[in-house]
Amino acid sequence: MGFSLAGLLRLRHLEEEEAGQALARANSRLEENSAREAQIRRKLGGGDDDVASVEVLRAVAAARASSRSMLAELEAVGRSHRQAADEARAAFSAARTRSKGLERLEEKHDLAVAVAELRTEQNALDEIASGARTRSEGAEGWR
């Protein structure tokens, strides 16, 4: 007898796989954003260049202001990516929990089926053995 919830278990495994892929994508986006953020922080923390004129000083100031603005945007995006990764992690955990519950039910079912099959086989062997004993006792009486 097959596991009656096998279709549901396959569905749960698919859901778990999809949740795992979503988690991997969310983690990847988070890592990419963190790398970009670190790169901008390094550029902002770079040494002061020798400023030869007021125009160069203004250009450096504008570039730093732009970088700081970009960094603020990346930090906001990073928070969003962290939240998405946390939600994806929770979804994966929930999907895994649902799969595990059904897997345990399947294991119990398989064990019950195996026990029933062994019991049936043992009963058949016992019946064969008792029939052979009865025949041999009957054959001895004929001698």
Strands, helices and their partners?
Elements: H1 6-44, H2 54-141
Helix pairs in contact: 1-2
Summary?
Helix content is 89%, strand content 0%. The protein is mostly helical and 143 residues long.
Features:
mainly alpha; single chain; 143 residues; 2 helices; rod-shaped
Describe this structure in words.
- The chain is an all-alpha fold and 143 residues long.
- The chain has a domain at 6-104.
- It contains two helices and no strands.
- The longest helix is centred in the C-terminal third of the chain and has 88 residues, at 54-141.
- The chain is rod-shaped.
- The model has no long low-confidence stretch (mean pLDDT 89).
How many helical stretches?
Answer: 2
Radius of gyration: 35 Å
Give the H and E element order: HH
Q: List unreliable stretches of 5+ residues.
A: none
